Amino acid sequence: MLQRDSSFAKEALRYGLIVIVLGFIVFPILWMVLTSFKPPQDVMVSPPRFLFTPTLDNYYHAIVDKNFLFYIKNTLVISVTSTVLVVIIGALAAYSFARYNVGDGHILFFILSTKMFPAIAVILPYFLIFRNIGKTDVGRFLGIGLDQPGALIISYTMFNLPFAIWLLVSFFQDIPRELEHSARLDGLSRLKVLRKVVFPLAAPGIAVTGVFTLIFCWNEFLFAYILTRQKASTVTVGVESFFTLQGILWGPVAAAATISVLPMMIFVLAMQRYMVRGLTFGAVRG
Amino acid sequence: MYELKAVHKRYGLAKVALRKIDLTVRDREFLVIYGPAGAGKSTILNILAGITRPTSGDVRRDGVSILRVPPERRDAAMAFENYALYSHLSVGENLAFPLRARGLGAAEIASRVARISGILGIGHLLDRRPGLLSGGQRQRVALGRAIIRPADIYLLDEPVGHLDAKLRHKIRAELKALADDLSATVVFTTTSSREALALGDRVAVLNEGRIEQAGTPEELYHRPANAFVASFVGDPPMSFLSVAPRREGDRIAFATPGGMPVAALPARAVESLRDEPGSRIQIGFRSNEVRLAGPDDPGTLRGRVDVVENLGYVKIALVGIGEDQVSVSFPASRHLSVGETVAIAFPRDAVHLFQNARAIAHAAPYA
């Protein structure tokens, strides 16, 4: 009996702790979601109200008046394009580093070293570069310039590549060379070996890299804020636009934030299976 | 026919894997490369496969250099020592991989997979992922993937090393039968003397990147070129006794440091014995060429039993004589205990003679 009591106490303690931790994590999200459904008079009252008449006015304001789905579309185009570029360039680069030890480790270190200064340190040069490129015909044609998606796509690709390469190098190093040798002997050319053996084996790592990159792009604020005005603005900039001179529109802010969180949440939940497999490594063993 | 001509392979600056070796793989032969771990066995296979390029030297197929032919155009099939299974594919897909890569039809693939998985006893595992298999099962899949398709040459890197004794015996026999059946050219590496002798049409003994001797199992066993081959081929290995030669008419007698003559050979048979002061002369013999003698028999050497190994059908005693240790086989029905003093009788003419670890003469039956 005694034993049962003590194990009960243990369980109670365990769940108690879980509830506390969950509270810290979930509460801000809960607050955001609840606020997005609150009428204006219920938003800033203290103590906060958990029972109120829900309304969709905030969503109407965000989506129809402020055209928030336009920001979602921009963000989607910019994030997905950057992620695809990062994964393709990163995987090929990481494979060469892992297999051929290009640059004897020095180039790999140099690539990482580009992450060693804060992003804001380069924002001014970036701003000037994109402003000038944007004035040229090529820049206009490719959409590279201020307030154009190309500027953010290039910036995000540039900023995510070092991390992606470092992450992927270790995944490729984990794949035994004999697997590639074996595939060569089985009759596959060098490129086919990459496609049929190496990349499928590194898939969990590539998935993890892609998810991290996409999340970073989706949530990035600084570059989006400086390099765009209106046409190419992303969700983070969009949410910020509710902070007006007349005051902060908390209800629509919460609605917009909820809308911008949803796609990532759904995406990450869908990818969870691959993520866990990738994060635990060791998935590749002959 | 494949030929390695003065193939030298260095990894980095310091590590030499192969030292200017010459080796011929004849058509339709089962060549075993036998040597201790780290001798360079896998490097030879990798060079034949085209995975590794020799530092210098040439690799020829039917007289034409294939150094620049990439692995996928060499028509070699290889089983890797560490299996190298595709972990993202099932066992069945692993086996089918080389066939798919060559564009065979689905029906042909299915029938070959069924046949090979049947021979190797992995038919029930076809749907599993390699990660869920035991070491022995993975090894059989790796072997199956190598032998599933017709190839110009099969390179098998210790393909049965991780199997248990019974399975190893069975698969070894199957492999030999299959190779004979297909008239396939096989290069097989092993660290087991028994495997080398049992399987090889020819055996090349490799040590520290050098080929110590290449020949038929009989040649290696009965006429080893040097002390390394003698002590490495055969189980138990050949034993050695240090001796000093002394001329006795037209014969040369060899006696232990204690003065006990253990062999005498016609002077003609040991012509290549050089008169070098300080050189090391050894008599070598197999455990079945000496026998336990009665305590009062003349011409025997006395020694102390250090170890007794029971092999079931026979027992082997390791007997310390002076500085040397000699293995003697004796009937399993007899009992010997460690520490006991025994007398050993030597065949006075059936011996192998070594000078500075190089074979000088193989007497009587093996001459």
From TrEMBL, chain A:
Gene3D superfamilies: MetI-like
Matching InterPro entries: BP-dep_ABC_trans_perm, MetI-like, MetI-like_sf
Gene Ontology BP annotations: transmembrane transport
Keyword tRNA processing: no
Main location, first listed in the record: membrane
Compartments reported by the entry: Cell membrane
Domain ABC transmembrane type-1: 72-271
Iron in keyword set: no
Residues that span the membrane, as ranges: 12-34, 76-95, 107-130, 150-172, 197-227, 247-270
Membrane topology note: Multi-pass membrane protein
Annotated keywords: Cell membrane, Membrane, Sugar transport, Transmembrane, Transmembrane helix, Transport
Family of the protein in this entry: Belongs to the binding-protein-dependent transport system permease family.
PANTHER family listed in its UniProt record: INNER MEMBRANE ABC TRANSPORTER PERMEASE PROTEIN YCJP (PTHR32243:SF18), MALTOSE TRANSPORT SYSTEM PERMEASE-RELATED (PTHR32243)
Protein name as it appears in the record: Multiple sugar transport system permease protein
Protein species of origin: Prosthecomicrobium pneumaticum
Lineage of the organism: Bacteria, Pseudomonadati, Pseudomonadota, Alphaproteobacteria, Hyphomicrobiales
From TrEMBL, chain B:
Topology versus the membrane: Peripheral membrane protein
A single MF term (Gene Ontology): ATP binding
Xref: PROSITE patterns: ABC_TRANSPORTER_1, ABC_TRANSPORTER_2
Repressor found in the keyword field: no
Domain ABC transporter: 2-233
GO annotation, cellular component aspect: ATP-binding cassette (ABC) transporter complex, substrate-binding subunit-containing
UniProt EC number: 3.6.3.-
Key words, A-Z: ATP-binding, Cell membrane, Hydrolase, Membrane, Nucleotide-binding, Sugar transport, Translocase, Transport
Main location: membrane
First-level EC class: hydrolase
Location(s), subcellular: Cell inner membrane
Family named by the database record: Belongs to the ABC transporter superfamily.
Protein name per Swiss-Prot or TrEMBL: Multiple sugar transport system ATP-binding protein
